[in-house]
Design a protein that fits this description.
This protein is α/β, with parallel strands linked by helices. It has one domain: TIM Barrel, CATH 3.20.20. The protein is built from eleven helices and 15 strands. Strand 6, helix 4 and strand 7 form a beta-alpha-beta unit. One of its GO terms (biological process) is N-acetylglucosamine catabolic process.
Length: 314
């Protein structure tokens, strides 16, 4: 069988029926989710924890670190963390499925507490830069080699400018974490898309972004300024049905994951390998190029090594 780079997903909230947000997550369950990812060609992830109370987040990080220390496969696969919240916009629509009551202004001491619980392995942080003190916060974390991404935000052009000057380099799931209805032209999607300095992360599942939007966003960014991710949660790699992502019970159906009765998406049920195939087809690029943006491109952005693996059926 031919060799190809392992996939590397920078935003995995859960997989194969396992909710990584669960405060009672067991080592066996985490290993089950990781084994399913590895069976699907994904050997590196940034395990993503979403907005919660600070005490709860610290406990989750500390618990997962114990599991990583006890299991070399977990340590290798979960090569770091993506913290998506609580430094996000509390505004309805922009907060998405995140609990608004937990949102807070950026706080270096609070982040450092979480980083210590995570063994120094928080590698990616999503923030809304409209909070007061954001530029100073971003600069301090960039100095610690944390990658800063803008998301769940309604930042103005000036606030985006300040965030970029401070060292922000990415956009979390561009086109999502926004209200369903926005002004036609002057909206945060357009403001972020226009910034060539920022690498846009896209979710090629047909639910977060229609195929034509994936194609348009890809074309709008300079070469090397797009990466792919799934934003997968427990329903990914599992049958349709009811699942949890943190505090929320959600329903996976017809390729969408939503809280019942809500228009807000709550992660995806997309498998990374299917994301590669979707991106190649929808954008019209070779599958090897799409794969690079879901593997070696991600690894390079974070300075993490990536193995080559055998690809069945190629």
């Amino acid at each position: 069988m031919p060799l190809a780079p392992s996939l590397f997903d920078l935003q995995i909230n859960g997989y194969a029926g396992v909710d990584f947000q669960n405060p009672d997550l067991s080592q066996a369950d985490l290993r089950r989710g990781v084994d399913a990812l590895r069976a699907g060609q994904t050997h590196r992830i940034l395990l993503t924890l979403i907005t919660d109370e600070m005490d709860a987040l610290a406990r989750k990080f500390a618990q997962i670190e114990k599991y990583r220390a006890a299991d070399p496969v977990l340590a290798e696969t979960v090569c770091g963390y993506h913290l998506e919240g609580p430094f996000l916009s509390p505004e309805e629509g922009y907060r998405g499925a995140h609990p608004g009551e937990c949102m807070r202004a950026p706080d270096r001491a609070a982040f450092q507490r979480l980083q210590e619980a995570a063994g120094g392995n928080i590698r990616l942080l999503t923030v809304a830069p409209e909070w007061p003190g954001s530029p100073e916060f971003i600069a301090a974390l960039v100095a610690q080699k944390v990658v800063l991404s803008l998301g769940h935000t309604n930042a103005s052009e000036a606030q985006i400018d300040e965030a970029i000057r401070a060292g922000a380099t990415m956009i979390t799931h561009l086109g999502n974490g926004t209200p369903v209805t926005l002004p036609r032209h002057n909206n945060v999607i357009q403001r972020l898309l226009a910034r060539d300095e920022l690498t846009a992360c896209l979710i090629p599942d047909g639910a977060h972004l229609p195929p034509f939007t994936v194609r348009n966003f890809f074309r709008a960014k300079p070469p090397g300024k797009v990466l792919f991710t799934t934003d997968a949660m427990a329903a990914a790699g599992a049958a349709p049905g009811r699942y949890r992502i943190g505090r929320l019970e959600v329903e996976s159906r017809d390729g969408f994951v939503r809280a019942p009765g809500s228009a807000n998406l709550a992660g995806s049920c997309l498998a990374p390998a299917q994301g590669v195939a979707n991106a190649a087809k929808w954008i019209g690029i070779p599958e090897a190029e799409a794969r690079a943006l879901f593997s070696t491109g991600v690894a390079a952005h974070f300075g993490i090594s990536l193995p080559e693996i055998e690809i069945p059926g190629k």
